[in-house]
Amino acid sequence: MARERNERFEALLDEAGWSRAQAAAAFVRIASESNLTDYIHIVRQHVQHWVDGSEPSGQAPIIMCEALSRRLRRVVTASEAGFTASNSPAQGALDWRVDPLIALNDLGSTDLDPDRRSLLRGGVYSAAALALPAESWWVEMAKEPPSAERKGTQRVGSGDVESVREMTLAFSRMDQRRGGGHGRSALVEYLRSDVARYLVGKFPNDRVRRDMYSAAAEGAYLSGWMAFDNGEHDVAEPYFALGLKLAARSGDAPLSGHILRAMAHQALDLGLFNKALELSAASIAGQRYKSATPRERALLGVVHARCLAASGQKQEAARTLLRAEGDLRSAHDGIEEPARTFFFGQASLAHETACTLRILDDPKGAIGQFGRSVRTRGAAFKRTHAVTLGYLGATQLSAGSVEEACATWSRTLDAMEEGIYSGRARQRVVEMRQLLSPYRRRGIPAAVELETRAADYLRTVD
Q1: How many degrees, rounded to 5, is the angle at CA 215 between CA 213 and CA 220?
Q2: CB 104 within 8 Å of CB 14
Q3: pLDDT digits (tens, 9 = 90+) for 398-442
Q4: Can you name the residues that pair with 202 across neighbouring β-strands?
Q5: What is the pLDDT of residues 334-365, one digit of tens each?
Q6: Backbone phi and psi for residue 229, each to the nearest 5 degrees, phi listed first
Q7: Which has fewest Cβ within 10 Å: 133, 251, 323, 358?
Q8: How far apart are CA 238 and CA 400, in angstroms?
Q9: Distance separating alpha carbons of residues 348 and 265, to the nearest angstrom
């Protein structure tokens, strides 16, 4: 029987103004960005087959819909494109209409189930799905949910809130030492079991209820951050969105800003500069910045500066950097800062400043700030230390200091070999090999030695 032409898909291609070859090229860009290597072979003939009625297999419908969503600047669903695609629990977290308790249960259950995990992992980071909700959504979310939403019988008090915060901080400290690839499943299990039960429990008052939602939001955010650090962007995104929903339900504006800052960081790393700027601008809007503590304002500001620089707004980026420096200077021991900012000090500010200066084409300034970060960072922050060394080596090489870069990268590998499980740190090793390739071919001893060490390291972690 002849296949029926997919007129919905064809109409979307026409709306996008794409030829079949252009659609295929956009598809491959999304697949490459998401590290879905099984799909980077797609060419115009595949797109034509889909128009003719063939059903794209596996993750292909999701990838194609994301490509169309970015082109058309609205969410394009598989159904709208005439495709059949399984529903992912990530879609519930990314849909602002879906209740956060439902999203938490669906995400956690799927993430921990070996038979269903493929529904969540191996997907696609959806820039189009990150269109932030209207102000009315934030107002509605901050209202107390109906009593019918709470079905549990467990009494939940301020001590339970403190327990969740302590547990989240313990996982955060471990993330700083070992990287996001270590221990995230244990955090998800804790969120899905203990924290989920707390959220449907009986609270003595509205303050405790809001505090518990805030604590749960930090846990969801941290799970997203750990996935992001490990290069699992498709997993990180729905957890960030879940954290934002829980933070909105708690009415915790600074925490919402903190999560939006992380989402901006992720978009920035993926090269989605306009989306990163939109998210970072939202992170410092209104009470998210005004009611934040000085240390958190500095963190929000320095990421916003990077996004401004990446978007070509150099003067505004420089001004924002200075403001972030001033915010951090105003932080002192007498101010109670949220536990989530324990890592952000002079070393972190220097790292982010250096990343901004790299974008602003100031390698000398970036090298100085990366060096300052390396010198001032404590031993408890091994993961970020390795990332900073990787960036420093790349910047030194771009400035023509080959031997100095090799010495720095040797220290990067020393740090990585101490048991760091981080996709971001691992990517610095991949980048190192790429940048050193011309020097290795010329037989420069330091480059040859580093290549051997880097290749051996990557074989042990891949």
Answers
A1: 90
A2: no
A3: 999 999 999 999 999 998 888 899 999 999 999 999 999 999 889
A4: 155
A5: 788 999 999 999 999 999 999 999 999 999 99
A6: -60, -30
A7: 133
A8: 41
A9: 14
